[in-house]
Amino acid sequence: MENPSRRWRGRTFYNSNYQKQNRRQPRKNEHLDDASKQARLLLDKLLRCYHHRAVIESIIVEPQRAYGSLQQAARSLDQAFRPAFASDKLLQDLQAANVAHIESSLLKILTHYDAATEESENLLRQLCNDKGPPDLASVARQVIHHVGLRCKLDASTVSKFLDRLNSLSNDPSVIDLLATPAAAAPTMTSVEESQPRQEGTDFWNLDDESTVSLNNFFLQKNQADRLESFLAKEVAPLACRHSSASERPEPRLIAWFGPDYSYSGRQLRSNGPIPSGLQPLLESVETATGKRFNSVLVNVYQNGSQFVGWHADDEAVLGERPFIASVSIGCTRTFELKAKSATSPCLSLDLFHGSLLTMSGDCQANFFHRIPPQHHKRGRRFNLTFRWTHEDPNTGATGASLAPSAPSATKTATPNTAVPLTASMAPVDLDESAQSAEHRRIPEDVCSNNDTTTASTIAASSNEPTASTNTETNADSVVDGGATTIGDVAASADATISNDPSAAAGAASDGSPAAGGTTEVASPENGCTSAADDLFVTPPLPRVGLPASPAKRRLPSPDSEDSPGGPERHRPHLNDSPSTFEQPVSLIISRDCRNLVLCPKPFEGLKLPAITEVHEYSLSALPSLLRSAALRNRQCAQSTVLVLPDELLSTDHWRELLSEAIDLLRADSLTRKILLVPSFASGEELTQSLSKKLSPVTLIASPPLKPIVSFSAPDFILALASWLRTLN
Ligand SMILES: O=C(O)CCC(=O)C(=O)O
Ligand SMILES: [Fe+2]
């Protein structure tokens, strides 16, 4: 049987042909456009309410019976909302008495009911006082029931409302409502279940360069529930109402994780690095979108009256054409977009518990978005908006010194083409088991880690709040009580990943779909055994590829296709000499993926059997590598071996990064041992200071290996292996 939600959807203009229909074809119900903008707006809004189909369909089944009621309702509407509705038109429609018109008329009634409590009561008053056909009350009952469901009215609100209704009407069938438990007790669960959602990801091309996508099922319900508990417990207490430039507090609570920065004349103080409990979600969002994020804004809407006004996330610190990834948790709320020059929304979506919405391309340049207040009782909703903050042009302060963005040679969000986006919305499971792109899931443990005590974002350390950029773009947002114009920027809105097979190793930690998200681990080169085997050979474990890493920065090599003249990549904002950053480091991954060695030298031509992958990176990618190491550890490793070069240890900045990276590793309960192998004398002092931090993780300094740089690669591995043996 045809899926009713699809059928219904198909009849609205909310489908992937939005652009086409919006621009070139007259919309359904176009006659209403002329009548009143507000009527259209309300109709648009209602067309989303798929679950109202139940009401509508029952009326369609018995149109004659419903007709009288609707006519009455329309008259009532006419009286109550004359200015808004141009209701003569509506009545004319009703006179035609065909199903489509009846449908849209009822939709209007429902919309109005939903639009504002006072007006709705007014409407019901009219409905109930009217000496209309006998089944009028039954329509009213259905309206109440379904609107109650949609608006998640709790039992006591419904009773109160019905009490009031009762006082307005002597109609016994209305009084009966009070005794109808089905109407009086729509639970949260039944609400969620009653809302048909489409599987897969929908795309809307708002214009040639602006795309919105929505995946209703990004998280499974249990994952979303766990995330909700985590947010309620760990994040909500941190959230507060920030004051706007006009000192008016934002009409919702906000918590910000990432570097401090200012927006719209306000300063947003960071609540710290992204909590480790959100890391799995972050990684899943990164994997699903193929973008990187270094910060997350959490909006907490405590009830339906809290909102965010029209705004665009177009702050300069967020870069050009920011990519926004927004996860919704909790009560469903409406999300609206409108062209900056328009007065009414062009797209309106329900954001469900566990959904992932993205905005890309010129969305922020050309459109505003908002979460309007919704009357009637609504529960709490969390929204997590993942962003990438760049250097603040006003102050020179850096939003984040995390891994570089991918180059911007290719626009990912190709307008009018769902395919590339669909492809980039890859399965989010870090496991290598294949999953359908239609059923993106994140790992079961995604929300189970409530550990917020340790930092996980390496880059969020030392940035002072920046001066105001004061780039509020939209007066509406002020009128609406303040906008969150903290933009949302993906690190790599234009991620381009080399598909060069020769770069496979270098791409290993790249989460982009082009790189496949996982990396096949190569077979051992030969069967020889050596001391190096001892270092790496451990009982076989399932092979995993490197999970998404914040950045892949493969050093250009002569045979690489990397163009030196390619787009400028994000670099750490430091005073250190560039040569420090360009220093090569190698990431060596053991055959069983259980050991990782980061070491300062290229391991060219190294063919040890135990080593399966050698990746070269510039030092600037180190934080990303460590993060990858921690991720990998979480899946299967026992220890991480860090071998760090002099240059790295000798700059304050890198020490900081290192210590944060170690925090990250430490947060991973599987990492029990971190071997820090400094290659020069000052390492000891560093080791001491880090040791305090690291407890209870074992940190071992390695005087025997110095100076590391004098070892050839195989010698180094052998020496390290024998040294490790002495430790056991
Ligand atoms: O809550 C939402 O879904 C939207 C939030 C938003 O637009 C923002 O924080 O910039
Ligand atoms: Fe926004």
TrEMBL record:
- One Pfam family hit: 2OG-FeII_Oxy_2
Q: Compositional bias (Low complexity) at which positions?
A: 395-418, 448-463, 500-517
> Bias category Polar residues: which stretches?
464-476
Which GO BP terms apply?
A: DNA alkylation repair
Record GO terms (molecular function):
dioxygenase activity
- Top-level taxonomic group: Eukaryota
Provide the cofactor list for this protein.
Fe(2+)
Q: Which InterPro entries match?
A: AlkB-like (IPR027450), AlkB-like_sf (IPR037151), ALKBH3 (IPR032854), Oxoglu/Fe-dep_dioxygenase_dom (IPR005123)
The cellular component terms of Gene Ontology attached to this UniProt record, alphabetical and capped at eight, are:
mitochondrion; nucleoplasm
Where do the record's region annotations for Disordered lie? Answer: 389-480, 500-581
Task: Tell me where in this chain the Fe2OG dioxygenase domain is found.
Answer: 292-390
The entry's protein name is Fe2OG dioxygenase domain-containing protein
State the species of origin: Macrostomum lignano
